[in-house]
Specification:
- The chain is an alpha/beta fold and about 200 residues long.
- It has a single domain, classed as P-loop containing nucleotide triphosphate hydrolases (Rossmann fold).
- It has a six-stranded mixed beta sheet, with helices on both faces.
- It comes from Piptocephalis cylindrospora.
- This is Small GTPase superfamily.
- It holds the Pfam family Ras.
């Protein structure tokens, strides 16, 4: 059996400025957290190898700027994405309310082949902040995810590394599924040629 080729999965993290996109990525890739907030300019990416169902895959995780003035850069970064992570801060209601526009914007810019089944994941970050400051309940977030076709949802804390690993494992798994389905829908041209040689269909 021929060894499977190495898989590179492109993952885009979207959400308002300050929800913790960079912190989540850094926590997952390098197990580091910083209290210093520095806005991402444009976009940045990190890679990490993970094992999913016995396959080693490389995740290329793109962290994008949440400020509107950088959103015009979206097209170049969104194209070719295998999964999109929508992130909000559970202590900031507005960051949750903009998930719709982030999702719609991504679908317009990325133009995935099968928009209805494209894998999204929602992360409600900063659950380490005291309960009294929380503005978005788990129930409300889950309802939104259900309305959008059952998007997986995780409550995370980049600071305490809560659910970060589990969330990215699900991201990798769903992105890999998407990648496999795309491959299956494009038959290998060599096989087609071989088929034609075996069965020229000339009727002679």
């Amino acid at each position: 059996m021929a060894p499977r080729k190495k898989v590179l999965l492109k993952v885009i993290i979207l959400g308002d400025s300050g929800v913790g996109k960079t912190s989540l990525m850094n926590q997952f890739v390098s197990k580091k957290f910083s209290n210093q907030y520095k806005a991402t300019i444009g976009a940045d990416f990190l890679t990490k190898e993970v094992v999913v169902d016995g396959r080693t895959i490389t995740m290329q995780i793109w962290d994008t700027a949440g400020q509107e003035r950088f959103q015009s850069l979206g097209v170049a970064f969104y194209r070719g994405a295998d999964c999109c992570v929508l992130t909000f801060d559970v202590n900031n209601a507005k960051s949750f309310e903009t998930l719709d526009s982030w999702r719609d914007e991504f679908l317009v810019q990325a133009s995935p082949r099968d928009a209805d089944n494209f894998p999204f994941i929602v992360l409600g970050n900063k659950v380490d902040v005291e309960e009294g400051k929380r503005m978005v309940s788990q129930k409300r977030a889950l309802q939104w995810c259900q309305m959008k076709g059952g998007i997986p949802f995780f409550e995370t804390s980049a600071k305490e590394a809560l659910n970060v690993e589990a969330a990215f494992q699900t991201i990798a798994k769903n992105a890999l599924q998407q990648e496999d389905e795309v491959e299956m829908s494009f038959p290998d041209p060599i096989d087609l040629n071989a088929q034609n040689q075996r069965d020229p269909g000339c009727g002679c």
